[in-house]
Amino acid sequence: MRALQHPDVEDLRLPTVLSALADPVRLRIVAELARSGGIVCGDFDVPVSMSTLSHHLKVLREAGVLRVTPQGSYRKHELRRDEMERRFPGVLDSITSAIEAP
Amino acid sequence: MRALQHPDVEDLRLPTVLSALADPVRLRIVAELARSGGIVCGDFDVPVSMSTLSHHLKVLREAGVLRVTPQGSYRKHELRRDEMERRFPGVLDSITSAIEAP
Predict the structure, then answer these.
(1) Cβ distance of B101 and A91 shorter than 8 Å
(2) B8/A contact by beta carbon, under 8 A
(3) Residue ranges of the HTH arsR-type domain (chains A, B) (predicted)?
C-alpha cells in the first residue's frame, strides 16, 4: 500500500486546520481518534458511507490533523496531537474537549 | 440604530464557530478584537472593502464569536470571550494565541 502525503508541521495553516474541523462528522472522527489513540478505516463509528468517510479522512490528513500509516492491508489513523500542540498550543485539545459539549 | 441579533450562549455550535474562524481575514479581525478589547466598524485594520468587512463581521456575530453594540451612530464590536470560554473552554483563547504563529 503506498504511503500517503502529510504536510510538514511548519506548513500547517490555522485556517486550513479550523476549516477541516468545522464539520460535525469530522469532529466526531476526531473525538473517536482522541478517545481511542488509533483506528483502522473500517472501525470508525460514524453514520456515513465508506466513500464519504474516506473523503473526511483525506480532508483531516491534508490539513495536518491526522496521520495515516499503512499496517498490512489496513490504514491506521492517528491524531497528530504532539505536532499540532507544538504548532498551535491548546487548539486541538480544547476543540477535542469541546466536541462533547451539549 | 436597530439592535442586531446574537445567538444565546447555549445555542452556540462548535462546527459553526470553527467555520466562522476558518478564514484568514476573520482570524485577523478576531486578533485585532482580542488585542484591543473593542473596535468600531471603521477602525478595523484589514485589507478588504467595507462591504466585505461587514460580511465577515456578520459571520462572526451569527456564529456567536462577537457582539455588536450600537454606540451613537457607530457599532462597537467585541469578542464574546467569557461566554465562549464558558461554552467551549480554551477554544477561542487558544485560537487567538495561535493566529500569530508564523
Answers:
(1) no
(2) no
(3) 6-99
